[in-house]
UniProtKB/TrEMBL annotation:
Residues 194-236 form the Non-structural maintenance of chromosomes element 1 RING C4HC3-type domain. This is Non-structural maintenance of chromosomes element 1 homolog. It holds the Pfam family zf-RING-like. The keyword Zinc applies. GO terms for cellular component: nucleus; Smc5-Smc6 complex. It is found in: Nucleus. It is an enzyme of class 2 (transferase). One of its GO terms (biological process) is double-strand break repair via homologous recombination. Keywords: DNA damage, DNA recombination, DNA repair, Metal-binding, Nucleus, Transferase, Ubl conjugation pathway, Zinc, Zinc-finger. GO terms for molecular function: ubiquitin protein ligase activity; zinc ion binding. Residues 278-296 have a biased composition (Low complexity). It catalyses: S-ubiquitinyl-[E2 ubiquitin-conjugating enzyme]-L-cysteine + [acceptor protein]-L-lysine = [E2 ubiquitin-conjugating enzyme]-L-cysteine + N(6)-ubiquitinyl-[acceptor protein]-L-lysine.
Length: 359
C-alpha cells in the first residue's frame, strides 16, 4: 500500500497535537492541505480518512467523528483503540485518578433522567473502593486514601484535557474525548440509545410518557420536529413538548437535513463484558421509570439519516463555577468527609455498586 502523503500526515498531526478539533477547524485544515472543500469533494474526503485509518490501525489508533451531546457540535479526533484505561490515560494519570474517572463516567451514563451530568458534589463523593479490581481483594490504599482535594484537582485536569467538561449549568459532564473514545463502550454496555440516531443518549430528552423508554438528543429532536407539524414520540405517539425558538427556526432554513450524521469512520464493535450486570441492584435503582430505561437494548434500530449538522447555540464550554466557589465547596466537603459523610453518601454507595467499567 502506498504510504500516506504529507497532506494526510498533516491532518493526523493536527489532531494529535491539538486534540479533538471542531468539524469546522478540521475541515478547514483539510481544505488548506488539499485545496478542496469537503462539501464539493466528499469522495476525496472519505478516501483520505479511509487511508489514514488503514495506517493508524497498525498502531491501534483511529480517526473518528462524534457529536458533543451538550451542544450538538461535531468533533474529529484520533483515539487509542486499545481497550484499557491504563494504556489510554496511564501515561498522564495515576491509578486512583483513572478509577475516579471511571466512577464519574459510570455515574453519568447511569443517570436515568439522561441529564448527562452530575454535580461537583456528587462527583467528589463517588467512592473509589467500588472500582477495585475484585470485590474479594482488599481495596488498594491508593484508592482508599484519595482525598477530596486530590479528586478536585483530578476533576480540573480531566476538564482541561477534555475527558470531562463543565456543563453550562455548572455540572460535570463528559468531555469530547470521552464521547469519541467510549463510543463502542456505550453500545456494549447498553447505554440507552437515542431513538433518532441510535447513538448513546447520554444527554437527551425523555419521552413525557413515564412508561415509554424513548430518549432523543436535543439536536436530533430539532432535526426531527422542525420540519413537521406533528410532534409526537416515535415510540408511543404521546405529544412531545417541543418548541423551536425563533433563532432555530431561522437557522433551520439554511440547514440541509439530508446530511448524514457523523458516522464512525471505522465501525468496530467487539462484545465486551457489560456494565449492567444481569440483575444487579441497578434494576431496582430508579423506581418507576429508572430501571426500565437502563435496559432498553430491544429498542435499538438502524440509524436514520435525519440528522443535521447545524451549529448549536448551547454555550457548553462556559465555566460558570469560579475557582473561589470551587474552593469554598471543597472546604465544606472536606469538613463533611471528616465527619464521615451524611446519609446521602450511603445511599449513593448502595445504588452505584453494581456497575463497573469493565474492559
Ligand atoms: Zn440522536
Ligand atoms: Zn414515548
Amino acid at each position: 500500500m502506498a504510504p500516506l502523503s504529507w497532506r494526510q500526515h498533516t491532518l493526523i498531526q493536527a489532531l494529535l497535537s491539538r486534540g479533538p478539533l471542531k468539524e469546522h477547524d478540521f475541515l478547514s485544515i483539510f481544505a488548506d492541505v488539499t485545496g478542496k472543500s469537503k462539501d464539493s469533494h466528499q469522495q476525496l474526503f472519505n478516501d483520505y480518512l479511509r487511508k489514514i485509518n488503514m495506517e493508524l490501525s497498525y498502531v491501534q489508533f483511529e480517526l473518528r467523528a462524534c457529536r458533543n451531546q451538550y451542544d450538538g457540535c461535531v468533533y474529529y479526533g484520533v483515539i487509542n483503540t486499545v481497550s484499557d484505561e491504563q494504556s489510554k490515560l496511564g501515561t498522564k494519570y495515576t491509578v486512583p485518578q483513572i478509577a475516579f474517572y471511571k466512577a464519574i463516567i459510570e455515574a453519568i451514563v447511569q443517570d436515568s433522567s439522561a441529564q448527562g451530568a452530575i454535580s461537583n458534589i456528587e462527583a467528589l463523593n463517588l467512592r473509589l473502593e467500588n472500582q477495585a479490581s475484585s470485590s474479594q481483594a482488599p481495596v488498594p490504599t491508593a484508592l482508599k486514601n484519595f482525598s477530596m482535594s486530590q479528586k478536585d484537582k483530578a476533576l480540573q485536569e480531566f476538564v482541561q484535557d477534555q475527558w470531562l467538561c463543565d456543563t453550562a449549568d455548572g455540572k460535570i459532564g463528559l468531555g469530547v474525548r470521552s464521547f469519541l473514545d467510549l463510543r463502542s463502550w456505550f453500545h456494549n454496555n447498553e447505554v440507552p440509545p437515542c431513538d433518532v440516531c441510535n447513538e448513546a443518549g447520554i444527554k437527551a430528552d425523555l419521552c413525557p410518557n413515564d412508561s415509554c423508554n424513548v430518549r432523543i438528543h436535543q439536536y436530533c429532536l430539532k432535526a426531527k420536529f422542525s420540519s413537521r407539524n406533528e410532534k409526537v414520540c416515535p415510540g408511543c405517539g404521546t405529544q412531545w413538548p417541543y418548541f423551536m425558538t425563533k433563532a432555530e427556526a431561522v437557522e433551520e432554513e439554511d440547514t440541509d437535513i439530508n446530511q448524514p450524521p457523523p458516522e464512525p469512520l471505522v465501525q468496530k464493535r467487539s462484545k465486551r463484558s457489560r456494565v449492567f450486570e444481569e440483575n444487579g441492584s441497578n434494576s431496582q435503582e430508579g423506581g418507576s421509570n429508572g430501571s426500565s430505561q437502563v435496559h432498553s437494548s430491544s429498542r435499538k434500530r438502524p440509524r436514520s439519516s435525519q440528522n443535521t449538522d447545524e451549529e448549536s447555540t448551547g454555550p457548553s464550554q462556559s465555566q460558570p463555577m469560579t475557582q473561589a466557589a470551587r474552593r469554598a465547596k471543597l472546604e465544606a466537603l472536606e469538613d463533611l468527609e471528616e465527619n464521615n459523610a451524611g446519609p446521602s453518601q450511603v445511599t449513593r454507595r448502595a445504588t452505584r455498586k453494581s456497575t463497573r467499567l469493565q474492559r
